[in-house]
Design brief:
Beta-clip-like; elongated; 3 domains; alpha+beta; 3-stranded antiparallel β-sheet
């Protein structure tokens, strides 16, 4: 009998041999047209989905977390385990390495994956020194999970570097330049720099796993991408059951489950049970009397994520993604003072400080304004933290107004509408905007004892509800909302300028036109994350060439850009309407007239 060399078959046999149940499922290559999604989970035969019946299950022994990694390092007796132990010990005693919390869990799992990968490569190269001495196989005599060989079937089915297509791993690609104007451009640049710094910091300890230079900066970026595209946070759910299932770990890698691809219309989900022998299950999302055919791919949902996050972490985008969002830091109104001050300094190149009679420097004029602005921003950031508001505000596509014809007649929005932004802002985002635009003229500030005031009234409870109530009680509340619409409109227009400033799409030569994914991207997901970029031509299109990687990347970036443009254009239209409606309000008219009168008196 000939032994199989197919990694998928070896992996399937390994799962079954170690307690996983997947009789109705199989692993196959997943493709959308000529684009590859890598390995996916498929039905083995005709199947009726029933949400009460598990389709597959994974035992606790196959869950990979930092508890397992530390146990291997502490109890493993093989040469490979001793290498892992030296690496972990070095990391635990290093001053600059976090040794608790999610950051430490991530490092442990990165080390585990690199440990398995280097061991697999060394065996492939015939380097028996990594597993034994004198040509003898080095076998773990106790728990088999402490032996690196136990995990090799899982390690070998993971995607290689050329099978990952996240922007962080793109090199010399035109698609990178097309990211300019989007949130991802800065995120990719920052992530690359952070990975390089981390690699250089960890390398002295990672070298215990391999002394031949296998773990390069590129390999470190690979293992980080593998981790983020596959990890699940299970800690809280597992701890609910207590007993043997209780674990200090949150991050987990789950063989089998982590090969499920994503779809907005997922038909299966992962589920935690309280049975120690069947911890994680795959179940149908709904019960359907109609059977699905054999060789049908089953999808889970990675969550309601925007294309920026899907592309950055998983390497794919979803056309017309209803979860798209454009994020930005709170636009504190005091930042304008700082920008104006910086421009004045550039023009004049002079100091605002003057020397007093006793020789000391005393801030004057603009410098006092700058100090006040900086203090106000610090106080606002502290308030956002106290209110547990995120450091980023998101703009989403406004929902369409209900009823036909309202688009032409004008959206039915105004002060009396519960949500005049039509879902463009969440309640927490709107509260963060209030914090950003309130000023001392609104009676907003922080007293010497640390208490905040809004409209001159103390914020006795630092809660969102209490803050919202004080803002809404302001006599000029509608002016505050108008200020929010105006600031948001300025941000939206700026971001549109950034996107349109990148020009038209790059030209594609005539001979490459057939390989562009325009006809495919309208249907579903564009190229999976941890996925291979090439696949064989579809059987029904034998003359079609496989898509070039650059065209795959450009197509994904264009979907990202178009989604952001559509979202921002819709937001721009709505914000212009909101401005027009609010300017007409009597309360706003009276406030603006009073402000104009004060300005004229000052002149």
């Amino acid at each position: 009998m000939m032994l199989t060399t197919d990694p998928k078959e070896i992996f399937t046999s390994w799962l079954r041999a170690n307690g996983a149940a997947l009789d109705s499922l199989t692993f196959k290559h997943s493709a959308h047209g000529s684009q590859s999604r890598g390995t996916g989970v498929f039905t083995k035969s005709q199947l009726i989905l029933d949400e009460a019946e598990p389709l597959a299950s994974v035992p606790s022994d196959l869950l990979i977390n930092n508890d397992l990694v530390l146990r291997i390092a502490q109890e493993g007796t093989t040469v490979a385990a001793q290498k892992l132990a030296r690496c972990i010990h070095g990391l635990q005693t290093a001053d600059s390495v976090p040794t608790s919390g999610p950051a430490w869990e991530r490092i442990c799992l990165l080390v585990f994956l690199l440990w398995g990968w280097t061991s697999a490569v060394q065996r492939l190269d015939g380097d028996i020194s990594s597993s034994g001495v004198g040509g003898k196989k080095d076998v773990e005599k106790g728990d088999k999970r402490l032996d690196v060989d136990f995990w090799i079937p899982y390690i070998k089915i993971l995607p290689e570097i050329n099978g990952l297509d996240t922007p962080v791993l793109w090199t010399d690609s035109l698609a990178l330049s097309r990211l300019e104007g989007t949130e991802l451009h800065a995120a990719v640049t920052s992530k690359r720099a952070a990975l390089l710094r981390e690699y250089e910091k960890l390398l002295p300890h990672l070298s215990h796993l391999d002394g031949t230079g296998l773990i390069t900066a590129e390999r470190f970026a690979w293992v980080d991408a593998v981790f983020w595209s596959r990890v699940l946070a299970l800690g809280a759910a597992l701890r609910e059951f207590g007993g043997d299932l209780a674990s200090g770990s949150d991050y987990h890698l789950i063989p089998l489950v982590d090969f499920c691809n994503h779809s907005p219309d997922a038909n299966i989900r992962w589920h935690i049970t309280d049975d120690p022998s069947r911890v994680v299950q795959l179940r149908a999302t709904t019960t359907d009397d109609e059977p699905i055919p054999a060789d049908t791919e089953l999808f889970i949902s990675y969550g309601n994520k925007p294309n920026t996050e899907l592309l950055f972490i998983h390497g794919f985008v979803i056309p017309n993604n209803r979860n798209n969002v454009v994020k930005f830091t709170p636009p504190f109104i005091e930042q304008k003072v700082l920008r104006d001050d910086d421009e004045d300094e550039d023009d004049e190149n002079t100091s605002n400080a003057v020397v007093t009679e006793d020789g000391s420097d005393e801030p004057q004029g603009d410098e006092l304004n700058r100090v006040a602005a900086e203090n106000a921003i610090q106080n606002k950031m502290a308030l956002l933290a106290a209110l547990e508001l995120r450091g980023l505000i998101g703009i989403r596509a406004p929902s369409e107004p209900e009823g036909e014809g309202q688009q032409e007649e004008g959206r039915e929005i105004g002060p009396g509408v519960e949500d005049p932004t039509l879902g463009m802002l969440t309640e927490s985002d709107l509260l963060a905007m209030y914090v950003a635009v309130l000023t001392a003229d609104d009676g907003f500030g922080r007293l010497d004892d640390g208490q905040y005031v809004v409209g001159g009234y103390p914020l006795t409870e630092t809660t969102r509800e209490a803050f919202s109530a004080l803002v809404k009680a302001l006599p000029h509340f509608e002016v505050i909302r108008l200020r929010v619409w105006a600031v948001l409109l300025e941000i939206v227009n700026f971001k549109l300028c950034l996107l349109y400033g990148q020009g038209a799409r790059p030209a594609v030569s005539q001979e490459d036109q057939h390989s562009r994914p325009d006809e495919e991207k309208a249907e579903g997901v564009i190229a999976g994350a941890d996925k291979v970029l090439f696949s064989s031509p579809a059987k029904d299109a034998p003359d079609r060439s496989p898509m070039a990687p650059e065209h795959v990347r450009l197509a994904k970036v264009e979907v990202l850009r178009e989604g952001q443009c559509d979202l921002l254009l819709g937001a721009c239209e709505l914000l212009q309407t909101l401005q027009e409606r609010w300017v007409e309000l009597p309360q706003v008219q009276e406030y603006l007239a009073a402000m104009q009168g004060e300005l004229e008196e000052e002149e």
